[in-house]
Design goal:
alpha+beta, 25% strand, three-stranded antiparallel β-sheet, homodimer, DNA-binding, 42% helix
Chain lengths: 202, 202
DNA sequence: CGCAGATTTGACAGCCATCAAGGTACGTGG
DNA sequence: CCACGTACCTTGATGGCTGTCAAATCTGCG
């Protein structure tokens, strides 16, 4: 399969909601996010995309997506156009199944996001976001002593949790003062995992 | 295909989250809802299921679902077990495609739900819920003079919008007083569609 | 009629948004 | 190396939306 390598600087939008799209992107390096644009210029971030992730598993069955994709850091990725993707899926049953699994996972993540936004406090939402990112980095074996890459700005956390930047700053500040986490030089360290989990799971 | 007809009285749970499930239900008559149970006894309703709807399009690829299904009204439905479903899907490409389309739709509904819960006011969320139900009933040709079946209790609206019953009561009450809607004998009438849309779309 | 569940209303409190100002980090060009 | 601009972060003051608690009324049903 021909790989089309691409690059986008941080803050660049690589897919725009409601425009026809004919390709799917695989992240090679850097972070991106998928979000729904909302009136008044705000947005709801639905998921963060890490190296190895795919932008949209649903591409095969929809003309256009209602989500935009934006680079958070400088981003290296490559794309498959829809025809190539369909070919790959029909050629190999295993790939097809993996794709469907991924799809189900995404849906279930989204459901949990809705539950979080509807029923949890700011502190809980932020704790759960951090814990989810920690878990994904543990799976990739990228965590050492609770420390992992964290290029998110408060703006991203705010857009993902449905809060304002100001309030995110307060909550993160409080977590820092309580010795739960530490953020420095684009890395986050979880200092008190049990307490963070207890906040998130209540 | 053998149809296994079933009945559940209102308020009965027909699928329980995190239990293995081997069948998928098609609603024949009545309303149900899919929800995520949360600690402290609350829940997030993800979708309302109307006659013709299917409980879960993802059944084929997951052992257990994290959502429960509960009858809102007395409910008539039938089930296909997983083997039957897989057979039907592989036998007919059209059915398979329809299923995938449905799947994508569900995911996109969920994404919009997350956006609503994260970024919209109580009034907007409730207006949008009513408008979404209106739209689904228009598609089924079940709306006459803006009036359609509405068996939801305030509790359901509250659980779907992430609000409390008390607050839902206030907002619905205000909408009634403003002449936007009317609810009586399990039917809802939209009296001022443009205004309701303008509230929902801001 | 009586009871359980549902709805409505009032009083009050708390969480989070908004507005505003000042501080910090970082890249760019002189 | 320094000046400067832009984005980003922090902190305080204030207010509004929505939750919580409580009690009264209503509805449906046996």
């Amino acid at each position: 399969v021909a790989h089309l390598h691409k690059f986008a600087p941080k803050r660049r939008t690589i897919y725009r909601a409601n425009e026809a799209y004919s390709s799917v992107a695989f992240i090679r390096d850097g972070w991106a996010c998928a979000y729904i644009p909302l009136p008044k210029g705000s947005r709801q971030i639905l998921s963060f995309l890490l190296p190895g992730d795919i932008t949209s598993a649903a591409a095969v069955f929809q003309e256009r997506s209602e989500t935009s994709i934006e680079a958070i850091t400088d981003l290296h990725y490559f794309t498959l156009n829809k025809a190539q993707l369909i070919e790959a899926l029909s050629a190999n049953q295993k790939i097809f199944n993996a794709f469907c699994k991924l799809w189900v996972e995404r849906k279930s993540e989204m459901a949990n996001l809705a539950a979080d936004l509807g029923h949890r406090s700011a502190e809980q939402r932020i704790a759960r976001l951090i814990l989810a990112l920690l878990k994904r980095h543990i799976e990739r074996d990228l965590v050492h002593d609770g420390r992992f890459p964290f290029p998110l700005r408060l703006r991203h956390i705010a857009d993902a949790t449905g809060l304002t930047v100001v309030h995110v700053s307060r909550v993160i500040g409080a977590m820092r003062k309580l010795g739960l986490i530490k953020i420095e030089r684009r890395f986050l360290t979880v200092l008190d995992l049990p307490e963070l989990q207890s906040i998130g799971n209540s």
